[in-house]
Amino acid sequence: MAEVILMPRLSDTMTEGVIAAWHKKVGDAVKKGELLAEVETDKATMDLESYKDGTLLHIGIEPGGKLQVNDLLAIIGEPGENIADLVKSGGSAAAPAAKTETAAPASKETAAPAAPATAGVDLSKIEEVILMPRLSDTMTEGVIADWHKKVGDKVSKGDLLAEVETDKATMELESYKNGTLLYIGAQKGDKVPVNTLLCVIGEPGSVDLEAIKAAANGGPVISASASPAVEQGSVSGSTEAATATQESTTNGRLKASPLARKLAAEKGINLQQVQGSGDGGRIVKSDIESFQPGKAAPAAAATAAAPVASTPAQPATTTTSGGTGLVSFEDRPVSQMRKVIARRLAESKFTAPHFYLTMSIDMDKAVASRAQLNELAPVKISFNDMVLKAVAIALKQHPVVNSSWLGDTIRTNHHVNIGVAVAVDEGLLVPVVRNADTKGLSQIATEVKDFAGKAKAKKLQPSDWEGSTFTISNLGMFGIDEFTAIINPPDSCILAVGAIQQVPVVKNGAVVPGNVMKVTLSCDHRVVDGASGAAFLLTVKGLLEEPLRMLI
Questions:
Q1: What's the rounded Cα separation, in Å, for the pair 13 and 42?
Q2: Residue 319 has pLDDT above 60, yes or no
Q3: Can you name the residues that pair with 250 across neighbouring β-strands?
Q4: Is the fold of 3-102 the same as that of 123-242?
Q5: Which of 89, 192, 385, 485 is the most buried (most CB within 10 A)?
Q6: The CATH number of domain 123-242 is 3.40.50.300
Q7: Which of 12, 28, 53, 525 is catalytic?
């Protein structure tokens, strides 16, 4: 019997998905576990596997098409089955939605001026409208870092439209449809709230732009300049775009589509050697498929010699009253990441009653054990990895420390997800090692190194930094003896880790050199009391002073 496959909810915030690619076509035999399609969600491009055997009888939408969650995606059954009723019903609500989307362009040809002019126009229902997406769980607005298309340009699905600076990172925004860029709702540097008008892509004459602009007035763009949203790129903007087409990297970031990255990884191709044919030198699927090692592109270092033009912050000087010296300073606009760091940590510091517990830990055996482990481990294990493992075990024994303050309730988490603070140029990111208590030291070391690399390259996805239950901040590599950290809400505690110092210690009545590390636990007193925090630190201390206990 034929079975309907609806668009699944692939993330907690997903409301719709875009088909990046189909890996099966109608009539193909499909086995359980085989890759059906790639779906681009609000988090990442994800593989969708079949959960049954059969034949693909129907595809609900072509590549580049957008489906709401629970819309008809595909039908799998036996060859020759009558699926007309299933296609019509589309899993209840799916069919009407699909019909509306397919019928919309035709109706706009004849009645476009009148249809959107009603007061209750919902921009999210207009196929040609692209709204500012929510690119992270804490994002409320995005800043347009750069436009890679201008009004009147042809746009293909997968083309890079713009770069959007969020509170977490600067992320690429790709087009999920073909057409012409008819309208740009925000200039470079403008702040655009989530779910407000970003741009319009369609066929010229098929949509009433004035009605769309009028409907968008309820949630206006907060402009960085006094001029209205432009419909024509400036001369300097087009010059920058022309320069950028010669490069496949911008500000050190390699530009490639998610599908191109996946194919390159499967074929073992170094993306740095591939010449991109997409917008701004972006690497797309066809570049990977046609790549020949003998015709590798020039090294990225050579192409990076011509940086993208930007407007630097202007230093200001003023002469002192004595006329003998200058006072010099520079004003920089606050980045989205820095704004969110300021807001969240200020809320934490002035809302959560912090108290601090500091403990010294004898690291002699940890130092010796690490040297032995690194002789056998497939990856280099750091002291931070050992601290993370000890904390994960301790959190299972002290669940009150692994709790979250939620206002009217206190949530005790049974899973152990540890955030690791990583410094980047613009601020701080906290990727999460999930279920850390179940992972070995080598696995933890691999994940932390991978996260650190992604953070510095601005490649972290929202799913990488969501869901921590405890946080570790380590400044030991900078020689900091000890410090206090601000709690990362909704966590109830954060552990600040200092450097391992060689100091004189007393052992068996004699003064000998020892390796001592200081850690400070910041606790939210609404959730954790002093005795609970102290007991947790004692367990961490015991595990690090006898590291073999972590391997049992």
A1: 7
A2: no
A3: 253
A4: yes
A5: 385
A6: no
A7: 525
Amino acid at 90: G
Residue 94 has pLDDT above 80, yes or no: no
- Give tens-digit pLDDT for 329-343: 898 888 777 888 888
C-alpha to C-alpha distance for 366 and 544, rounded to whole angstroms: 6
Which of 88-92, 285-289, 346-350, 428-432 shows the lowest per-residue confidence on average (mean pLDDT)? 88-92
* 529 counts as catalytic: yes
Beta bridge partners of residue 16, listed in sequence order: 68
User: Is there a catalytic annotation at residue 481?
Assistant: no
Instruction: Supply the pLDDT for residue 249.
Output: 52
Residue 25 has which token pair?
A: 């076509």
Q: Is the pLDDT of residue 226 over 60?
A: no
Predicted confidence at residue 44, as pLDDT, reads 64
Domain ranges of the chain: 3-102, 123-242, 336-551
Q: Which fold has domain 336-551?
A: Chloramphenicol Acetyltransferase (3.30.559)
For residues 451, 454, 456, 462, the Cα torsion angle rounded to the nearest 10 degrees is -90
Higher pLDDT, 543 or 290: 543
Q: Considering the entire predicted model, what is its pTM?
A: 0.50
209 pLDDT tier (thresholds 50, 70, 90):
confident
The correct CATH number of 3-102 out of 2.40.50.100, 3.30.450.20, 3.60.130.10, 3.40.1190.20 is: 2.40.50.100
Read off φ and ψ for residue 254, nearest 5 degrees.
-75, 130
Pair 180, 155: CB distance under 8 Å: yes
* Matching residue, tokens 């072509």: 62
Query: Three-class SS string for 265-325?
Result: HHHCCCHHHCCCCCHHHCECHHHHHCCCHHHCCCCHHHHCCCCCCCCCCCEEEEECCCCCC
